[in-house]
Amino acid sequence: MLIGMSNQTVNQAVSSGVKASPHRFNRFEIKYLITEQDVPALREQLATRMSTDPLSPPGGYRVESLYFDSADLRCYTEKIEGLKFRRKLRIRTYGDGVLTPESTVSVEIKQRVNKVTQKRRLDLPFIYALALGDSTGAAVGEQVDVEKLLEISPENQHALIHEMASFAKNYRLRPIATTKYHREAFVGADAEESSRVTIDHGVSGRDRDFLLGQDLEDRPTVAQGLAVVEIKCDERVPFWLTDMTAQLEMSVIRMSKYCETIEAFHNRPASAFGAVDPIF
């Protein structure tokens, strides 16, 4: 059992964190970089065919992620080299407030297979998610107890837990970098209900101090005055969205917020050197 957590505490943390979002899905994702001055025009266009995500508070919400990689940045390198199959493991949290060990977070494997993005996700207490992704065990003071984690998890999550644990072990993953931004989200309706458009403002990151939810002065990783727009669809991009991007002169870009963070630290993040710092 991980530090200071009873079975009852872990079960409560897991059950309270179940989200309505799918735990496994395939998507096409297209990214654009626009100026903040152009965002109002984009909002106006989106409002004619989409609605604000009903799960989002007014004005959007904070998204913060902690990415795991090897000390030699193998996951980063696979992305830069454009491998047709590549994976990343991350912890993601939504909203404000410093996390506690019991806070529920989403732990995800995000992988790319040719042009399709696949995500597999489960919700865990922060301390378990950290231990699952950190092969060194240093972030929380001990290695993850996979068998104990299986005992308190639904059976349909067991295969994913094993895959995450194996990925962390085989790649020698450790906490490497965070990304943080403020997100506006829009969703489609009826036949286009799987379509989603997000606008991310103030994208930044850091290579240390990995307790999520802190109000720290992270390093900007996308130039100030620019926002990242993502169109996400299960099958195809609706024609009206394609026309909209052309009308607004939006150009497709290839970028990864994680890779932008690594490059902001000149490919030498502090977290890749020496022992992993304890988070609790």
UniProtKB/TrEMBL annotation:
InterPro entries assigned: CYTH-like_dom_sf, VTC_domain, VTC_sf
GO biological process terms, semicolon-separated: polyphosphate biosynthetic process
Residues in the signal sequence: none
VTC domain ranges (all copies): 26-266
Top-level division of the source organism's lineage: Bacteria
Gene3D superfamilies: VTC, catalytic tunnel domain
Positions in coiled-coil regions: none
The protein's name: VTC domain-containing protein
Species for this entry: Corynebacterium glutamicum (strain ATCC 13032 / DSM 20300 / JCM 1318 / BCRC 11384 / CCUG 27702 / LMG 3730 / NBRC 12168 / NCIMB 10025 / NRRL B-2784 / 534)
Lineage of producing organism: Bacteria, Bacillati, Actinomycetota, Actinomycetes, Mycobacteriales
